[in-house]
Amino acid sequence: MRAWFFLVLLLPLPAQAGAVMKSTKPWSNATVPYQLSADILKTAYTQSKDCTGWAKWKASPAHKACKAMNDWHRRTGVRFVARDGLGSVQIYLNPHATSATVGQLPIGNQVNIQPGANYGSILHEFGHTLGLAHEHQRADRATYLNLQPFLQTYLETCGMKLDTVCNDVRSAFPEREMRLTSDYDPCSLMHYLANQGPRHKEDPRWSRIFTLTTKGKAAEKACLPQFAKLEKRCRKIVQKCAISDRDAWTVRRFHGLE
Ligand SMILES: [Zn+2]
């Protein structure tokens, strides 16, 4: 898989770094050009060609995409500017996948949003746009996580198999070499959930992907207070609600803003 076109898939039910992979490039001048597709703009019933006026739009994929860019901007200082062209992040409505390319690519930057995608998933995808990898793919994860045996087996046996599960395992679970990391962050928006509806519905083992080690539990206890004011579903490890302090720090540092 060519690193410059590394698509990270987020399946509908699941998931959730302060970590940046070695091959990932930051956005020049800490500015991300974006273009909303006609399809996605239609979901907000707007005449606008970009995010201008988004706060007044009806709840829709376009509204969530613009809100997500605004949230990342407020937390990191990175700017999103509407601009057409090959180098811009193309934001599409996609019936099949909610996904994003990672960091700045010369061409082919995109965010795909499923019509029913929740806000946390979309915020997560824009984290990839800003260069963040999955926290649980850090090379030091074994200090903090115990992967369930079935997942470890997949990692060892998938090889080049092309079935859906192996494609997902290869893209979202191997350890990756990172160029920039914060302390390990179980509270990251970029960490997958430990417990959830099964990521692959036909196999209930996928409802529990890992457990925390003693050090993982200590890291969780230390990071959770930042979410004290959020609703209950967000006050837990690997939440899927908000940009964590370390997520924001990593993006700022990666773009020379820290
Ligand atoms: Zn992801």
TrEMBL record:
Binds 1 zinc ion per subunit. Residues 19-146 form the Peptidase M12A domain. Zn(2+) binds at H124, H128, H134. PROSITE patterns: ASTACIN. Residues 1-17 form the signal peptide. GO terms for molecular function: metalloendopeptidase activity; zinc ion binding. GO terms for biological process: proteolysis. Pfam families: Astacin. This is Astacin Peptidase family M12A family protein. It comes from Asticcacaulis biprosthecium C19.
